[in-house]
């Protein structure tokens, strides 16, 4: 997206949300959903539209882990590492995923296809280890199931990339 | 036409409920069966998910766990008529897990179509709101106080007192905010209620609005729960169309507007003042108390902040009276608690019953012990800030005060079970690591203490002057307990100290954990000496 397009997007998102109380977080969510990340250009634009300092916006962006500062991969894989999932082998799954993808948690594979993240609790604590792939939660994840889930996510991802549908 | 139920709950779909629903639709079409497929909430028996139910003359017959592949054979065998099969569980209501519960808060979850207005009203919905609207605000609060309801978000604060404070504080604008951040591992009941009975939460917030004089409300839902967000938003739209929200609720003249706000991946935003900051669109930095949110809350206005389950308990209290609710429970823990059995457990899920049931009855009785089949070693109760309770203490009754007396915390009733392969030193280390990761960074004992905590535990486990360093760890815990602004830093010592107290051998190498299971990573620290527990303040990452 060109800088002009981004500026236009920011303007329209802010306009949409301006009437809401304390709208900054809502605006950042909208932008993060549509752009996939919030970089310094977006921070500057949002600050300008809301007439607040860049530091204020930057402070909020960096406080919350959902806001990425660079584009994420097509497949976002989040593995739960909280207590309930640890109790049934989450660390083994994390270890396995790191080996398979050759990245540590928090990183994207060199080909840009998968971003591996850790998360603390997906609310699926009686069916752990839990994982979330592009917003869908999976339970009882082990090494084998992880491969299956990702294969189907990548197929969906490719299908949606080739069909000119609505951005989700 | 036969009615078939396949849950839409995200735990059920996490193990294939969507695929099962699609398979049933397809197979029914092919075999010429006329069915109505309802995507209900979950009954909370997760080991049976996907749990398919078939409505019959006898009641709802259950099958589970069902896989998509098994559907053709099930239908062949007559599942759509409730016929017997090896996956058939009989009548769901008669399973001991269901039969033995007292479902007040979860009365409709799993039973109804979450977004069906008819189902809601036919199953007791709106009775509480109608009763409340017939009462003056102060009378509503009297019922609440009589019920003995205490906050289900963890702290157990009496809800009647909170609401009365908001009612008694004069203001042109007041808010009702629902804390649906549910960040604690081992808890999922807030999510289940929002996905399985969203109108209940809407009704309860309208009651709260009437009781305290609020006109606006927010439900703050964590972003890890996209399905709950979507279901709640859909339910709110329907509620507006029904006149259950908006400018003249149920023709009573009550005005209340409600919307969902989504968190952004910060555990600390479950702490109520941090949540308010986040709702205001800011960093989730904890506010000092006083002032309390009931007086000076969202945008400085008087605000009710309650957990999902606290609120969801209110309609039944108003419908049947505070006294009836208070008949359940023991001592100062009245009513029912929605226990959540999680982690290494054979039968995990939600079990709502009166306070007082012992931890052992829950974990070894209904829960059936561990999933791995190995001995239970410990359970962490009340979330990541709760203590580890060793199996030897499982006769503890689930009562706020009884747990406190045992230096544990009942909290929201989340129970995470571990078998004998757990390394408790690693779990203690994780508690500190988690605190370091999720601290809002406002105060030193928490922000720096947690980082030091990880280092000290690493020294202990690597055999570096273990006795001295255990002393340092205890001092550090003391400082965190005494000096932290909120319970994040203040309660992190709970899991650490309880692990140390009950499982000291894990720290000093005397316990060789059984080796089939999980091995939480323990990397060793950098080994710089303990020069004062909080020496070397550093840049906060929050
Ligand atoms: C670190 C931390 C996290 C918390 N997380 C939650 C949460 O996710 N949900 C919740 O209802 N309460 C949470 N609480 C408790 C809230 O601060 C507050 O006590 C509660 O929302 C009040 O509602 P209640 O009285 O209905 O329980 C948390 C507290 C702390 C210190
Ligand atoms: S104890 Fe931790 S989370 Fe709480 S206010 Fe202090 S730094 Fe923030």
From TrEMBL, chain A:
GO molecular function list: 2 iron, 2 sulfur cluster binding; metal ion binding; oxidoreductase activity
InterPro entries per UniProt: NADP_DH_HndA-like, NuoE-like, NuoE_N, Thioredoxin-like_sf
Keywords, alphabetical: 2Fe-2S, Iron, Iron-sulfur, Metal-binding
Annotated CDD domains: TRX_Fd_NuoE_FDH_gamma
Cofactor(s) needed: [2Fe-2S] cluster
Binding-site residues for [2Fe-2S] cluster, renumbered to this chain: 80, 85, 121, 125
Cofactor note: Binds 1 [2Fe-2S] cluster.
PANTHER family xrefs: BIFURCATING [FEFE] HYDROGENASE GAMMA SUBUNIT (PTHR43342:SF1), NADH-QUINONE OXIDOREDUCTASE, E SUBUNIT (PTHR43342)
Assigned protein family: Belongs to the complex I 24 kDa subunit family.
Protein's name in the database: NADH-quinone oxidoreductase subunit E
Organism, scientific name: Halostreptopolyspora alba
From TrEMBL, chain B:
Sequence segments annotated as region (Disordered): 507-542
Domain of life (superkingdom): Bacteria
Cleavable signal peptide: none
Compositionally skewed regions (Low complexity) per UniProt: 515-525
InterPro entries, alphabetized: NADH-UbQ_OxRdtase_51kDa_CS, Nuo51_FMN-bd, Nuo51_FMN-bd_sf, Nuop51_4Fe4S-bd, Nuop51_4Fe4S-bd_sf, Thioredoxin-like_sf
One of the record's GO molecular function terms: NADH dehydrogenase (ubiquinone) activity
Keyword entries, A-Z: 4Fe-4S, Iron, Iron-sulfur, Metal-binding
All copies of domain NADH-ubiquinone oxidoreductase 51kDa subunit iron-sulphur binding, residue ranges: 425-470
Pfam families: Complex1_51K (PF01512), NADH_4Fe-4S (PF10589)
Similarity annotation: Belongs to the complex I 51 kDa subunit family.
Protein name: Formate dehydrogenase beta subunit
Source organism per UniProt: Halostreptopolyspora alba
Taxonomic classification: Bacteria, Bacillati, Actinomycetota, Actinomycetes, Streptosporangiales
């Amino acid at each position: 997206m060109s800088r002009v397009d981004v500026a236009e997007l920011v303007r329209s998102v802010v306009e949409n949300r301006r009437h809401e109380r304390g709208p900054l977080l809502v605006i950042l969510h909208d932008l993060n959903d549509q752009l996939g990340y919030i970089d310094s250009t977006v921070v500057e634009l949002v600050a300008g539209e809301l007439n607040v300092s860049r530091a204020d916006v930057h402070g909020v962006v960096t406080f919350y882990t959902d806001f990425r500062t660079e584009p994420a991969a097509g497949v976002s894989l989040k593995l739960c590492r909280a207590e309930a999932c640890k109790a049934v082998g989450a660390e083994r799954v994390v270890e396995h995923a790191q080996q398979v993808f050759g990245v540590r948690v928090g990183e994207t594979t060199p080909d840009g296809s998968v971003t591996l993240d850790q998360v603390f609790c997906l609310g699926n604590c009686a069916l752990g280890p839990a994982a979330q792939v592009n917003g869908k939660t999976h339970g009882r994840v082990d090494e084998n199931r992880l491969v299956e889930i990702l294969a189907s996510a990548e197929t969906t991802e490719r299908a949606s990339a080739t069909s000119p549908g609505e951005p989700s | 036409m036969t009615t078939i139920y396949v849950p839409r709950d995200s735990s059920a779909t996490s193990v294939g409920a969507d695929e099962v629903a699609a398979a049933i639709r397809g197979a029914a079409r092919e075999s010429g069966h006329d069915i109505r497929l309802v995507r209900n909430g979950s009954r909370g028996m997760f080991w049976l998910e996907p749990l398919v139910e078939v409505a019959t003359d006898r009641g709802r017959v259950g099958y589970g766990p069902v896989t998509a592949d098994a559907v053709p054979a099930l239908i062949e065998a007559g599942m759509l008529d409730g016929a017997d099969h090896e996956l058939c569980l009989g009548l769901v209501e008669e399973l001991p897990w269901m039969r033995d519960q007292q479902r007040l808060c979860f009365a409709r979850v799993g039973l109804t179509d979450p977004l069906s207005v008819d189902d809601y009203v036919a199953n007791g919905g709106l009775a509480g709101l109608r009763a409340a609207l017939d009462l003056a605000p102060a009378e509503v609060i009297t019922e609440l106080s009589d019920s003995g309801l205490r906050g289900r978000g963890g702290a157990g604060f009496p809800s009647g007192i909170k609401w009365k404070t908001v009612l008694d504080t004069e203001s042109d604008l007041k808010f009702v905010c629902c804390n649906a951040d549910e960040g604690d591992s081992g808890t999922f009941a807030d999510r289940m209620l929002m996905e399985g009975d969203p109108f209940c939460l809407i009704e309860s917030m309208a009651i709260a609005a009437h009781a305290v004089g609020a006109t606006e409300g927010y439900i703050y839902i964590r972003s890890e729960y996209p399905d709950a967000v979507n279901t709640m938003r859909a339910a709110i739209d329907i509620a507006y169309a029904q006149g259950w929200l908006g400018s003249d609720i149920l023709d009573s003249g009550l005005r209340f507007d409600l919307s969902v706000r989504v968190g952004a991946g910060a555990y600390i935003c479950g702490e109520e003042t941090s949540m308010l900051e986040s709702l205001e669109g800011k960093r989730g930095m904890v506010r000092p108390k006083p002032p309390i949110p009931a007086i000076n809350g969202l945008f400085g206005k008087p605000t009710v902040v309650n957990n999902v389950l606290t609120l969801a308990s209110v309609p039944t209290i108003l419908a049947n009276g505070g006294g009836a609710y208070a008949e359940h429970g023991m001592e100062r823990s009245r009513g029912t608690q929605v226990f959540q059995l999680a982690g290494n457990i054979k039968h995990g899920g939600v079990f709502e019953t009166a306070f007082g049931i012992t931890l052992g009855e829950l974990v070894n009785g209904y829960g059936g012990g561990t999933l791995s089949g190995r001995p239970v070693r410990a359970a962490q109760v009340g979330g990541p800030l709760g203590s580890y309770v060793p199996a030897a203490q499982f006769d503890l009754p689930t009562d706020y005060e009884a747990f406190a007396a045992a230096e544990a915390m009942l909290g929201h009733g989340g129970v995470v079970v571990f078998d004998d392969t757990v390394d408790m030193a690693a779990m203690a280390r994780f508690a500190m690591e988690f605190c370091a990761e999720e601290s809002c960074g406002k105060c030193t004992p928490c922000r720096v203490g947690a980082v030091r905590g990880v280092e000290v535990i690493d020294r202990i486990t690597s055999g570096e002057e273990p006795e001295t360093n255990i002393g340092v760890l205890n001092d550090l815990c003391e400082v965190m307990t005494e000096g932290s602004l909120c319970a994040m830093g203040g309660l992190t010592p709970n899991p650490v100290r309880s692990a140390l107290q009950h499982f000291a051998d894990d720290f000093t190498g005397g316990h060789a954990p059984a080796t089939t299971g999980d091995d939480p990573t323990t990397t060793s620290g950098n080994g710089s000496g303990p020069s004062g527990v909080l020496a070397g303040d550093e840049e906060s990452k929050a």
